[in-house]
Amino acid sequence: MKAKILAALRASDGYVSGQDLCGQFGVSRTAIWKAINQLKQSGYEIEAVQNRGYHIVSIPDILSENELRSIRKTKWLGDKIYYEPVSESTNTKAMQLAEQGAPHGTIVVTDHQINGRGRRGRIWETEEGAGIAMTFLLRPKIDPNNASMLTLIAAMAVARGIEDETGLKVGIKWPNDIIINRKKVSGILTEMSAQADYVNHIVVGIGINVHMEEFPEELQNTATSIFLELGVKINRAALIERICEYFEAYFDVFLRTEDLSAMAKQYDAYMVNRNQPVKVLDPKDTYEGTARGITTRGELLVDTWECRRLVSSGEVSVRGLYGYV
């Protein structure tokens, strides 16, 4: 009910009477009063005026289930939200929930991830209150061979969401690093459980540096945060909702063809290393060339001195010839 009360208060430009809330939700005035007080204790500033009702004055930067539900605009993504203040890994938790029967579109969110996984076994830790760590649980009826393209779809959703909420110019370093001013602000990890021709479930994990004010010395040249680039703090829940809206829209388009034919040009427009010299670090074969964009299957097109090559994501890493980007 608290999420519904928050949504009702947000929807009003003025005050909402306790009686109206009682009628809307079918509960007593005492129940409304208790819920309002609990919201105040959570950090919401809510003004109560006799004979006028309640008015929301300010909203804290929190990632609670109530907050996320109160602003949700998506059709199916986020129909179920699982939030916990501290999590080892939202991807691991989403996998566990999937095995327990959690439905398509479930979102797992934490305020403090302490053992998240990045590509090639790296650890992604999210400071308490400083970042976003979330995972989308999906059960699409698609060919398992097409699942990796969801990582690129997520990258576009994150890039557009950050742009909308901040006004910053955002790019993508193929396949899934989100870049601002040549530094990484977000990473994405997609994992799948599947049979030979059937997807059991897919989890898409997204980590975003939001409020971080500094990084360890070894990351200062390659990592940044939205706060460091923008100079002000943003509302993380609002950013999550915007990303969810874009991901849901892109996902629905993807399902029509199970490829990126309708989105490849848009992805290319975000690519920070398009038409730039790159080094492809493949365990079997390291080589240099010029990145040209992606195929409709999300492969990177690289022109070398001898031929055009297709690069698939996985254990392959692509770097700028003279640095990270």
Strand order of the largest sheet: 3-4-7-11-10-9-8
Number of strands: 16
Low-confidence stretches: none
Quaternary arrangement of the chains shown? single chain
| Distance between the first and last residues' Cα | 47 Å
Beta-strand fraction estimate: 25-35%
How large, in whole angstroms, is the Cα Rg?
A: 22 Å
Helix content: 25-40%
Summed up, the helix count is: 9
Shape: elongated
Mean pLDDT: 92
> What is the H/E string?
HHHEEHEHEEEEHEEEEHHHEEEEE
Largest sheet descriptor: 7 strands, mixed
Helix and strand composition category: alpha+beta
Question: How would you describe the overall organization of this protein?
Answer:
The radius of gyration is 22 Å and the shape is elongated. Helices cover 31% and strands 28% of the residues. A hairpin with a 3-residue loop joins strand 8 (171-173) and strand 9. It has helices spanning 2-11, 18-25, 29-42, 65-70, 90-99, 149-166, 226-230, 236-257, 264-270, and strands spanning 45-49, 53-58, 81-87, 107-113, 116-117, 123-124, 131-138, 171-173, 177-180, 183-194, 199-209, 277-281, 287-294, 300-303, 308-311, 317-320. Strands 3-4-7-11-10-9-8 form a seven-stranded mixed β-sheet, sandwiched between helices. A five-stranded antiparallel β-sheet has the order 15-14-13-12-16. Strands 1-2 form a two-stranded antiparallel sheet.
Structure summary:
The chain is of the alpha+beta class and about 325 residues long. It has nine helices and 16 strands. The longest helix has 22 residues, at about 235-255.
